[in-house]
Structure formats: C-alpha cells, structure tokens
Design brief:
It is a single chain. The chain has no helices and 3 strands. By secondary structure, it is mostly loops. It folds into 2 domains: about 1-40, no CATH class; about 40-75, no CATH class. The radius of gyration is 13 Å and the shape is globular.
Length: about 80
C-alpha cells in the first residue's frame, strides 16, 4: 500500500494565523483545499515550539502560548 499526503489548508504555505488564506484573503476551514495549494513540507509530527527557530525570540508570534508541547502555523526549522 502506498501512503500519500493529502492537500488541505492545514498543510499549505498560504495559511496564516486565524485560518486566513493569504492567497484568497478569506477565512478557511481545516478541511478546505484549492488549486492554489502549496504544500508546506516543513511541519511534521515531530514539530513543536521547542524546535522552532522563533521559540524564545522576539519573532515568536505567540510567546505567551509557546511551549515545548505546542506548535503554531508560524513554525520554521
């Protein structure tokens, strides 16, 4: 059996905070998708604030919520 990734807004590079699509400038749901999808392959099941390049820095978008067990849409390697 071949396993494949699904394309939804949750794994798209165009997804911004509060589930806003930067391409379409509208609120989206977790299970939406479109033809403009750009797969964000950097987030994995091992991603967390602890291994985010923004963790503990001024560039962190949610410093009061950030913890080693959380992850947000601004996560970067």
């Amino acid at each position: 059996m071949e396993l494949r990734n699904i394309n939804t807004c949750i794994n798209c590079e165009n997804l911004l905070r509060d589930f806003i699509c930067q391409t379409h400038q509208q609120k989206v749901e977790i299970n939406n998708f479109c033809d403009s999808h750009s797969y964000k392959d950097s987030i994995t099941k091992n991603s967390s604030c602890a291994n985010c390049s923004h963790f503990g820095l001024d560039s962190c978008s949610r410093p009061s919520e950030a913890s080693e067990t959380m992850v947000c849409f601004d996560w970067k390697k």
